[in-house]
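Tutorial, part two.
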Amino acid sequence: MTATRRASPRLRALSALVLLGLLVAAPPAVANGGGSVRMNELQVIGTHNSYKREISEVEQHTYEAAINKPGDYEELLAYSHASLPQQLGRQGVRGLELDLFRDPQGGLYANPLVRQATGLGPLTDPAWQRPGIKVLHIADLDYSTTCVRFVGCLKRVRAWSSANPGHVPLLILLELKQSERRAVELGGVPAPPWDAAGLAGLDAEIRSVFGERRLITPDDVRRSPLTLEQSVLRGGWPRLRASRGKVVFLLDNDPGPIRDAYAAGRPNLEGRVLFTNSRPGFRDAAFIKRNEPGGPNTAQIRALVRAGYLVRTRSDVPLATVRAEDYSLLDAALTSGAHLISTDFPVSGMSARYDSDFVAGLPGGGVARCNPVSARPNCRAGLLERTR
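Running the prediction step on this input gives:
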């Protein structure tokens, strides 16, 4: 009963805020060139585990033996992505996801267990030995990546962005990870925790690559004296004309210790780079992750989008969705209005190895479309991204 009584004021406040957000008058409808379209009136396709490459077949068997799940790799992890610039360029994705591990001294992940067990020896790329955050899926078990150092990945994104300054905002989802318990039990390395120093280092690494003019941060969205949530519910997302060529960083981790540490002393994410994955009713609630778009979640996502939150969902779950050529999740994701729809198969041909033609894309193609839930009638898909 106590929990219910505590929740009631929050729910009442949220209802009032959502209603207010829905009632705020929209700016007069003008052509896209007039700049009234906002960045939350778009829908784009992104990739899941965007850096990922498959480990060798012999390593896959070692991985499955380590976790005692035969066939697990082939069923869930047997997919690979092109380099980040290829995805942003030829594949036309506008969202990326990177999994991050701390490595303050360098070399922590350079000799994965699966390589030790198969006699392959340590990794030879010198980037593994350098200090700084590393990008990989599962420490010691599923390590193969197209870009080792987080800063290196970001530099590739920045180079592509600089060459294509008219792109719609890039949404980059970051999952801050730690070692799997089973891997550590087998002798793997325990990853350093994401404490205050690690989180400060994360922001610093991003800012070392992207200057303030290239970022959209919570401070760019919040309108004092409103909270960050109040700001987005009242239409506070930047206009598209001021957002092209910029990058938005989103925290993938669910509300919990990491999110709490990142927002500690900064209830509106003051001075921070990332938008946290939050919940309605919290001061920092601007971005919300809803991975399952089907069933009743479709209506819930639509309500969140309509209210003003930025939402991410998924269109497929490897690899059952692909083998069955099941488009129900994709259809639900598109209909929901989620701004970022993540997939492991953004272009034709990637699923052919599974005797499938599954591909997740926007209706009619293109890199972005007017959001079916939040876009106003003046939005024109052909004018969203500038090619010059």
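Confidence is low (pLDDT under 50) at residues 1-34. In part three we will examine how such features are distributed along the chain.
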